[in-house]
Write a structure and sequence with these properties.
6-stranded antiparallel sheet, alpha+beta, single chain, Metal Binding Protein, Guanine Nucleotide Exchange Factor, Chain A
Length: 184
């Protein structure tokens, strides 16, 4: 298995490419708009993704996730409102995927929405994918980790929050880990 990490200091466009016997390749791009110190990104990605991100079976996911993480990340569950570790968490750092360690959100995009789950107005570019979710008789936008496909939550638009995007990424705390800027 080969794992390469390259970064351009000027453009702040780090790239992670992981390949495992075949053509599976995952690339994470960060732009200057979402600056995270280069050394911090390298530590996060090296520590959490050095084994390579790949499609795993349910039994493989169960071996590395807690039962609650498996229910939410792999079975598209939701934690009860107001119970998550990161709902009222406002320290400086980066929120990463609890499944694979990919950096997803900067703390500077987190805001108080009062919804009972961590709320962000924007993700690190390329880290979060959007999908139509037609469950429960309504149409919503589901968000997942681009690298491992783990369910994060949903995006809601046009709610009138005073944010640059007028979006609320409503994310399950169980889907996240936090890396403090001071410890990275």
């Amino acid at each position: 298995m080969v794992s390469l990490f390259t970064a351009s200091i000027r453009g702040i466009r780090p790239t992670l490419r992981t390949t495992a016997r075949g053509s599976n390749s995952y690339t994470l791009h960060l732009t200057q708009r979402t600056f995270i110190p280069n050394l911090q990104i390298q530590r996060i990605l090296t520590r959490n993704m050095s084994g390579g991100v790949k499609a795993k079976s349910d039994s493989e996911w169960r071996a590395v996730l807690s039962p609650e993480q498996f229910r939410i990340l792999r079975q598209k569950g939701t934690e009860p409102a107001g119970t998550g570790e990161y709902d009222k968490h406002y320290e400086e750092g980066v929120y990463t995927c609890a499944g694979c360690g990919t950096p997803l959100y900067k703390s500077t995009t987190k805001f108080k929405s009062g919804c009972g789950w961590p709320a962000f107005f924007d993700a690190i570019p390329g880290a979060v994918s959007r999908h139509v979710d037609s469950s429960f008789g309504m149409q919503r936008t589901e968000i997942t980790c681009t690298a491992c496909g783990g369910h994060l939550g949903h995006v809601f638009k046009g709610e009138g929050f005073p944010t640059p995007t007028d979006e609320r990424h409503c994310v399950n705390s169980v889907s996240l880990n936090f890396v403090d800027d001071k410890k990275a």
